[in-house]
From TrEMBL:
Listed GO CC annotations: alpha,alpha-trehalose-phosphate synthase complex (UDP-forming); cytosol
Lineage, opening ranks: Eukaryota, Fungi, Fungi incertae sedis, Mucoromycota, Mucoromycotina
Matching NCBIfam families: HAD-SF-IIB, T6PP
Designated name of the protein: Trehalose-phosphatase
GO biological process: trehalose biosynthetic process
Family annotation (InterPro entries): Glyco_trans_20 (IPR001830), HAD-like_sf (IPR036412), HAD-SF_hydro_IIB (IPR006379), HAD_sf (IPR023214), Trehalose_PPase (IPR003337)
Recorded family membership: In the N-terminal section; belongs to the glycosyltransferase 20 family.
GO MF annotations in UniProt: alpha,alpha-trehalose-phosphate synthase (UDP-forming) activity; trehalose-phosphatase activity
Length: 827
């Protein structure tokens, strides 16, 4: 697994948005398509005839504003009058049975802008739920099952012509999926809100989970139905966490990426889910190589610039300036939920007025709380109570310091607020990518004295907007000091900070986000040196037949995870009696050369397996060898510089002291730090920190390498591995007819790779995936060490069939390997 950020890959991607050559299409998958769908049975007589649908590569943004000066809504700074939102592009096509109207959705504009930007240079399709289908002019929902097949086909045709959109029609399961599992279960978890058992209905959660699985299956099936070779699949958000696994089961070679528009929770939070293991498998899918990166989403700068310069915005700006003349304006616009920190913002503002009395009657906070899904009546009540308290304490008949609006606001009002503000205050306690901060920066750019941005350190944008004033929203005194500092800041500093923020926002746009993600996905896909065809189950009968015919056989077996199961305490992995008996029987056959090639040290191998006669050992991943019949060990690392061990020991001891449950294992030529018994998340975090420390302090100075194993880190001399040992052994047995090699982890892939390369010019054994990575250009370039023309290779990995491997067969468990040994021993 690799870790990288958008900034690290930025230099590979020109800001013009060019992508590497993509052979297929990009399949964009979102929970909902970017349009609302309305149906009316006939056009009114005074309506214009329908226009033909736009080309998929054309873009049309309807810039509608409130320009009429006699409009009471336009004349008010923020109106509480009933309003009808104007929503951009309308495409209408009349059919015989129904007239469909497709209207651009409000919200999620950054997501849709990024996805649509991919259409400029690539063929794309967009798969998503239709959302609720309604009768035009009403709020009445139309159940998809009530639509005639002809109507559905016509709607599908319109959406395809509109933008290669593939709609998914969902029935009652949509409620359990979205309103149930996504909003009541996943959303709180992704925002670090742990529900107590008393507030959680486990039976309801199980029903929601069933709907979640069913909807994810519908999405996966739609992708599979439309997939073509070389297509790139781009899935978005936690609504569809299971889709990657479901697609991978049917399309093992597909390039699949999923972007989560929220901070992924820690293991301590995530495991509170009833279905946490299944959900995680849906992302990782049994050993699939995954590249994990941070790709902060941006906004559509051109769209924001156009919307913020509409005549209706100017009217609103003038109205706001007139109402708050000679006042500093602080703006907050958040959804009404507990993670947005509106209460914390109000308490901090109260602390600001308390600690800085010179600003009383000079500053106004305009807070807009947009309604959102769920019952937030208690929160709204507390907010209203706090607003009343502040206004009664610091206000007067003529002036209130807090103006609170619990409502949606028009687009003109929104951009007007962002444009006239002297300060934007965002105090979320947990948030994903807060695009309000980006839009505020863009709206401030025309001002000679741009306003400042105070941003919660818990916002997803905090890591990208370093020139903002970062605060802990729970530290009211600090937020109060930051407000005072922002309002009293010199003009020069304001301009300097703003220019840095503006440069980041305009260079890391929604287009840049989408192209960065796709570019990295393509890069990872192209770098895969292993195909992902399922490795077939070991053909026992074929192995038996080849075993009987072979005149000389060489067998290599890893120990941990192969001849014995992985256990939490390494010293508990002692061999079973059945395994020892089978090994001894195989070693007694003069046609066989049996080797155990392990990461264990000599003492352990001697203690556990030394009673087996005529067996060969390789210890510490090939550093020490004890040939068959020998009484002494041979060191492969004699003369190598081992001065690094003292420094590595010091580093490992440092992390052991700070990671409960971890310990250090010392071997003659290597040192291993185990953290299997530590807390899963913290152990992995410490391992990554330790690995970075080792790379900087050790690997850069000494000829060693880091082996990242199963819950362990091992440092060993470079150029010594299991692959080199099996090549040496095989070179001494060039007339071998049959090679059997079994292992389970990354170190065993060295053996599989070496044997596959050595066997490349021989015939394969008929396995569907045999020698899948062998080629004349393989990174392994061995000498001729295996000259027997009539030979067979059985490289067997222990693990699932989907595991990426150089082996050509697989078994699921170490017990199956032992059964294979027993079967061969009985021949």
């Amino acid at each position: 697994m690799s870790s990288l950020t958008a900034e690290k890959v930025a230099h590979f991607l020109p800001l013009s948005g060019q992508l590497p050559d993509i052979q297929g299409r990009i399949i964009n998958v979102t929970h909902q398509i970017p349009y609302n769908i309305l149906r009316s049975h006939q056009l009114k007589r005074d309506q214009a005839p329908p226009s033909p649908p736009k080309s998929p590569h054309q873009e049309d943004i309807s810039l509608e504003g409130t320009a009429a000066t006699d409009d009471p809504v336009a004349a008010a700074p923020i109106s509480k009058l009933a309003r009808h939102h104007k929503r951009g592009v309308t495409l209408r096509m009349k059919f015989h049975a129904a007239d469909w109207t497709v209207v651009e959705r409000r919200g999620h504009q950054a997501l849709y802008a990024g996805i649509q930007s991919l259409r400029k240079d690539n063929q794309t399709i967009h798969i998503g739920w239709t959302g609720p289908i309604r009768e035009q002019g009403t709020r009445n929902k139309i159940p998809p099952h009530s639509l005639a097949t002809e109507d559905k086909v016509k709607l599908q045709s319109l959406l395809w012509e509109t933008g290669h959109i593939v709609p998914i029609f969902l029935e009652k399961e949509s409620q359990g999926h979205y309103e149930g599992y996504c909003k009541e279960v996943l959303w709180p978890v992704f925002h670090y809100l742990v529900q107590t058992s008393s507030s959680r209905d486990s039976r309801a959660e199980k029903r929601y989970w069933d709907d979640y699985v069913a909807v994810n299956r519908r999405f996966a099936d739609a992708v599979i139905d439309h997939y073509q070779t070389n297509d790139i699949i781009f899935i978005n958000d936690y609504h569809l966490l299971l889709v990657p696994q479901m697609i991978r089961e049917k399309l093992p070679d597909a390039a699949i990426g999923i972007f989560i528009h929220a901070t992924f929770p820690s293991s301590e939070i995530f495991r509170c889910l009833q279905s946490c293991e299944t959900t995680q498998v849906g992302v990782s899918h049994k050993g699939t190589m995954v590249s994990v990166g941070a790709f902060p989403i941006g906004v559509d700068c051109n769209r924001v610039h156009q919307f913020s310069r509409q005549p209706g915005v100017e009217l609103k700006m003038e109205a706001i300036r007139d109402m708050y003349a000679d006042k500093k304006i602080i703006v907050g616009r958040d959804k009404l939920d507990s993670t947005k920190g509106i209460l914390q913002k109000l308490h901090a503002f109260e602390a600001f007025l308390t600690n800085h009395p010179e600003w009383r009657n000079q500053v106004v906070l305009i807070q807009v709380a947009t309604p959102t899904f769920g019952d937030h009546s208690k929160l709204e009540s507390k907010i209203s109570e706090t607003v009343g308290h502040i206004n009664s304490r610091f206000g007067s008949i003529e002036f209130f310091p807090v103006h609170y609006y619990h409502q949606d606001i028009d687009r003109d009002e929104y951009y007007a607020l962002l444009s006239v503000a002297d300060l934007a205050l965002i105090t979320c306690s947990r948030d994903g990518m807060n695009t309000t901060s980006y839009e505020y920066i863009l709206c401030q750019h025309r001002k000679s004295e741009p306003g400042q941005l105070i941003l919660s350190e818990f916002a997803g944008t905090a890591g990208s907007l370093g020139a903002a004033i970062l605060v802990n929203p729970y530290d009211y005194a600090d937020v109060a000091r930051s407000i005072n500092g922002a309002l009293t800041m010199s003009v020069e500093e304001k301009i300097t900070r703003h220019e840095k923020l503006y440069h980041h926002v305009t260079s890391h746009t929604a287009d840049f986000w989408a192209h960065s993600f796709i570019k990295q996905l393509v890069s990872v896909s192209q770098q895969q040196d292993l195909q992902s065809h399922a490795t077939p189950n070991l053909d026992i009968q074929k192995l038996i037949d080849d075993y009987k015919l072979a005149k000389k056989r060489v067998m290599f077996f890893d120990y941990d995870g192969t001849l014995a199961p992985i256990v939490p305490v390494p010293s508990d992995a002692k061999p079973s009696a059945d395994m020892l008996d089978a090994l001894q029987t195989l070693c007694n056959d003069p046609k066989n050369s049996v080797w155990v090639v392990s990461g264990r040290d000599q003492a352990v191998l001697e203690e556990w397996l030394g009673g087996v006669k005529n067996i060969g050992f390789s210890a510490e991943h090939g550093c020490y060898v004890k040939p068959i019949g020998a009484t002494q060990w041979t060191s492969i690392v004699d003369g190598m510089d081992m001065s690094w061990k003292a420094d590595v020991t010091e580093i490992f001891d440092y992390y052991t002291e700070r990671t409960q449950g971890s310990f250090v294992e010392h071997k003659k030529s290597s040192i291993t730090w185990h953290y299997r018994l530590a807390d899963a998340e913290y152990g992995a975090f410490q391992a990554k920190e330790c690995q970075n420390h080792l790379e900087n302090a050790i690997v850069s100075k000494f000829p060693v390498e880091i082996l990242v194993g199963k819950k362990n880190l091992e440092i060993r001399p470079m150029s010594v591995n299991k692959g080199e040992i099996v090549k040496r052994i095989l070179a001494k047995n060039p007339d071998t007819n049959l090679v059997i090699c079994a292992g389970d982890d990354k170190t065993d892939e060295d053996m599989f790779r070496a044997l596959s390369a050595a066997h490349y010019q021989q015939k394969n054994i008929g396995s569907p995936s045999a020698l899948r990575v062998s080629s004349p250009t393989s990174p392994v370039s061995p000498p001729i060490i295996w000259s027997e023309p009539d030979s067979n290779l059985y490289s067997v990995t222990v693990g699932p069939s989907e595991k990426k491997t150089h082996a050509n067969w697989h078994v699921n468990t170490p017990e199956q390997i032992i059964n294979v040994l027993k079967t061969l021993a009985s021949i």
